[in-house]
Amino acid sequence: MSRLPTLFISHGSPMLALEPGTTGPVLTRIGQQLPKPKAVLVISAHWLTQQPTLTSSAAPETIHDFGGFPRALYALQYPAPGSPELAAQVQTLLKKIGLDARLDAQRGLDHGAWVPLRYLYPDADVPVVQLSLNPSVSPKLQFALGQLLRGLSDEGVLILASGSFTHNLGELHWDSPQELPEAGDPYVDQFRDWVIARIEAHDIDALNDYRKLAPHARRAHPTDEHLLPLFVALGAADNTEVVRLHKDVALGTLAMDVFDFGSGGGLLKENG
């Protein structure tokens, strides 16, 4: 199998699982066009721990880690198998740089993992392992973590970083349609245009300092955790070509950008 690209997916609201909008079909096409991986390693903004932790169950449960949504959402299951072997392999990799990673056989898949995976692999037939995210670790060190994981892409493992390109829940436009081509507030595009320009220029130093340098950074991300998976993806991507596959905005201010690092544009053309 040739080297797999690395993906960064903005997973949006949990309602994406029931309301595909424009993002769901894009994720479905990605899953159809990618070579089927032997496993997926997910780094999600919704599993935050100080000690690196990996799901090691052979049958991870579906976690409904949200509240106040329709009952139908809580009935959804994503019964993908786990991969204790991959979890142990990543644990060994992390130990090489002094990170004492823990295996957790009880932890399941949070919605940052299973919601996009329902579109990528609807048959739930690809093993999935999650690696927790340490929100107190700098973007620079998240990038270094991605570099450590880079070789997995050569072994048929899809690295999936799941977060959100902007994530200010206090400014969502609940009366707006689910997804539109344009943001409801100019700051959203000003922030993401800055980030995209630095990604395309491989300007990692500027990206690492995005909270000081990017326009409206603290408004776009009052807290870091939904953008930090992007830095893991950048590290795993090995300076390969980046292609934006999707750029619509949900609820006025929730940027749903999806990025492909490494297929050289051969995966999908940008939507819209």
Description:
There is one protein chain. Helices cover 32% and strands 18% of the residues. It has ten helices and eleven strands. The protein is globular and about 45 Å long. By secondary structure, it is of the alpha/beta class. The protein has helices at residues 23-33, 71-75, 84-95, 111-120, 139-149, 186-200, 204-208, 210-213, 217-220, 228-237, and strands at residues 6-10, 39-48, 53-55, 102-104, 128-133, 157-163, 179-180, 242-246, 249-250, 254-255, 258-261. The chain has a six-stranded mixed beta sheet, sandwiched between helices. Strands 7-9-10 form a three-stranded antiparallel beta sheet, with no helix packed on it. It has one domain: LigB-like (Protocatechuate 4,5-dioxygenase, Chain B). Strand 9 and strand 10 form a beta hairpin.
List the helices and strands and how they pair.
Blueprint: E1 6-10, H1 23-33, E2 39-48, E3 53-55, H2 71-75, H3 84-95, E4 102-104, H4 111-120, E5 128-133, H5 139-149, E6 157-163, E7 179-180, H6 186-200, H7 204-208, H8 210-213, H9 217-220, H10 228-237, E8 242-246, E9 249-250, E10 254-255, E11 258-261
Parallel strand pairs: 1-6, 2-5, 2-6, 3-4
Antiparallel strand pairs: 1-11, 7-9, 8-11, 9-10
Helix pairs in contact: 1-4, 5-10
